[in-house]
User: Which sequence fits this backbone?
């Protein structure tokens, strides 16, 4: 084993170790250091001097010895040295109280008489600050904000021996950021906050607060965006800088007013046709409002106001899309609900009413914007007729005659309902058909027609229609007279009423028959002294005829279907009145009077012939009347001869009659109208003379 080493010196620089120095021992390969504290000891093997025993207790007295070693064994322990370990280093608790101060504190160190604490910027700038104290805490002030400082502290004992030191790096908290700026993005409802960077700040926190609501944005840069802000709110924005020492004071709050919220409680109404009133509730932070109204034809108008309502001109039948925005310095409010308002459809234009019959009117009009349905209303006669259709025409039937109607066409839409009251069109139906009450004859060709007047201010026209033609009469009252109706004709009599509104239906027809016509021509032919033949032309409308020859001496009558008649018992030399009655099939009678008729004068009686000399003949007769003149006629094959007596005589002579012939001699009366010998000679008796 090697020799025992000799300790040159032993000392303690750290509270947990003792360092020993000795002279080297030849042949020794290792050394064993031993530090003994009472019954406990700690051994450490080292290669050479110096050597350090670790794991000791601070401020403790140890007996230290050294032994040399090699493969042969260990030497004896060297004479020991007594060495006391130094004081333990104080364990610092360091924090930055503010941006310019650091507080240092520690627990008491056993056997320590005092403490020494030094502070210096870690970057070497500035001067070092050092303080000695017997307390267990102290504060360094007037430091640079956000700077990193190195702090070293140790304790010393009563002999002034310093113990272990403790080093700690501490940064002061940063200063509050400067030049904070806030910009607001109204479209995205977010705020961009920026500031000047502050020394020593590692991160920043932006706080945006409004009442109990707080929004934060953390960043390591000098700007930050805070999203999801609420419209219509006022926020207060502050920025705090942070580092490992803590936080700076927050900056003075910057006020941020966001855009106003979209107006609510929007109401739209037509306070009167053609005027829209848009109103809404006021909103927080709204300085003024803009209302946009866009019609469905693309035209847009707007209204700018600081009030909560706007008036707009509107047209019927349009749909308007309405949006209301609030504005302030921050910008425009978000888009709220877009309302649409459809105005009532327009009143139909170009309204026309045309009667297709007396009780039916066809109403047409031009289509109007916004109308889905039309309602035609005809009021009159104590009732209302309705017609609903999608077409632009309507036919109203079963109207009351002679009635004024007020026709109104309203348009309807599903969105708004009916149009505003539209101007009516007044029409009047044609008069009611009159009812003929009576037809009376006031003369041969005069007919009076009476009817029930059932219209006001109507003109009545009565028409008699037949094969003979048309006859009319007109009146505004309840009767009129048909004049100059032809005889022997059948008519259908009807009446109509006329007014400016039109013409009524004709009344029911009443048949009318005029009395038969009197024959135009009537001829009397005397057949014998006592028989006369009467013939006449046809009387229109007559079926039978009654002819009468009447004189004071008697009457001759004949009733026949023919147009002639033989009347007997005619008295010669008598004046007769001639009458004829034409009787129709229905018994209507026309009494016809003609020129009087005189029967032939009576033939003389007692005609006698007396031969005269010179081939002559005297004819005698007995006159039938004092006023009658006669004439004697002699007819033979060799000639005809006659003679007329002088006035007052009843005979005359015919001379120079050819001999050798047979003659017929007739004495016949002569009238004042001229001779009718041919006629009368037929009636008077003949004498034969040879």
Assistant:
């Amino acid at each position: 084993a090697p020799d025992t080493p000799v300790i040159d010196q032993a000392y303690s620089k750290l509270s947990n170790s003792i360092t020993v120095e000795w002279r080297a021992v030849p042949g020794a390969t290792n050394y064993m250091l031993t530090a003994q504290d009472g019954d406990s000891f700690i051994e450490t093997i080292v290669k050479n001097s110096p050597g350090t025993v670790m794991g000791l207790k601070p401020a403790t007295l140890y007996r230290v010895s050294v032994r040399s070693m090699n493969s042969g064994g260990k030497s004896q322990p060297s004479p020991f040295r007594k060495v006391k370990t130094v004081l333990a280093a104080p364990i610092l608790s360091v924090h930055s109280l503010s941006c310019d101060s650091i507080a240092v504190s520690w627990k008491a160190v056993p056997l320590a008489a005092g403490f020494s604490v030094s502070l210096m910027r870690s970057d070497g700038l500035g001067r070092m600050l050092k303080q000695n104290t017997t307390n267990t805490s102290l504060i360094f002030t007037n430091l640079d904000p956000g700077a990193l400082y190195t702090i070293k502290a140790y304790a010393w004992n009563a002999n002034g021996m310093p113990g272990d030191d403790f080093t700690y790096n501490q940064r002061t908290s940063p200063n509050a950021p400067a030049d904070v700026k806030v910009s607001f993005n109204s479209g995205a409802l977010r705020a961009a906050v920026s500031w000047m960077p502050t020394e020593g700040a590692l991160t920043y926190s932006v706080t945006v607060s409004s009442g109990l609501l707080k929004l934060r944005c953390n960043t390591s840069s000098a700007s930050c965006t805070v999203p999801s802000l609420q419209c219509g709110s006022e926020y207060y924005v502050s920025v705090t800088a942070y580092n490992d020492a803590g936080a700076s004071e927050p900056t003075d709050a910057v006020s941020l007013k966001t855009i106003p919220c979209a107006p609510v409680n929007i109401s739209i109404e037509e306070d009167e046709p053609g005027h829209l009133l848009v109103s809404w509730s006021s909103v927080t932070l709204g300085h003024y409002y803009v209302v946009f109204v866009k019609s469905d034809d693309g035209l847009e108008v707007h209204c700018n106001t600081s009030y909560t309502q706007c008036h707009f001109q509107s047209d019927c039948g349009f749909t308007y899309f309405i949006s209301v925005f609030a504005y302030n310095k921050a910008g425009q409010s978000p888009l709220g609900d877009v309302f649409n308002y459809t105005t009532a459809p327009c009143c139909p234009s170009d309204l026309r009413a045309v009667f297709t019959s007396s009780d039916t009117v066809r109403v047409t009009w031009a289509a109007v914007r916004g109308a889905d349905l039309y309602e035609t209303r005809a009021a009159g006669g104590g009732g209302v007729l309705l017609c609903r259709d999608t077409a632009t025409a309507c036919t109203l039937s079963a109207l009351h005659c002679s009635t004024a109607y007020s026709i109104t066409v309203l348009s309807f839409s599903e969105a708004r309902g009916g149009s505003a009251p539209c101007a009516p069109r007044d029409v009047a139906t044609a008069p009611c058909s009159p009812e003929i009450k009576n037809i009376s004859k006031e003369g041969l060709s005069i007919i009076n027609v009476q009817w029930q007047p059932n219209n006001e201010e109507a003109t009545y026209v009565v028409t008699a229609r037949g094969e003979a033609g048309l006859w009319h009469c007109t009146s505004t009252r309840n009767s009129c007279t048909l004049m100059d109706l032809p005889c022997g004709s059948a008519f259908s009599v009807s009446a109509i009423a006329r007014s400016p509104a039109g013409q009524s239906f004709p009344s029911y027809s009443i048949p009318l028959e005029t009395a038969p016509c009197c024959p135009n021509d009537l001829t009397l032919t005397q057949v014998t002294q006592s028989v006369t033949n009467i013939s006449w032309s046809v009387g229109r409308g007559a079926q039978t005829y009654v002819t009468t020859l009447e004189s004071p001496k008697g009457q001759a009558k004949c009733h026949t279907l023919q147009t002639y008649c033989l009347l007997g018992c005619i008295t010669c030399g008598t004046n007769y009145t001639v009458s004829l009655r034409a009787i129709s099939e229905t018994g209507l009678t026309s009494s016809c009077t003609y020129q009087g008729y005189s029967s032939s004068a009576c033939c003389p009686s007692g005609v006698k012939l007396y031969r005269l000399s010179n081939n002559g003949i005297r004819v005698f007769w007995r006159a039938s009347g004092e006023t009658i003149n006669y004439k004697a006629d002699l007819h033979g094959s060799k000639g005809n001869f006659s003679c007329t007596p002088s006035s007052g005589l009843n005979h005359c002579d015919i001379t120079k009659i050819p001999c050798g012939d047979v003659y017929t001699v007739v004495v016949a009366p002569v009238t004042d109208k001229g001779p009718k010998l041919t006629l009368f000679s037929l009636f008077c008796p003949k004498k034969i003379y040879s």
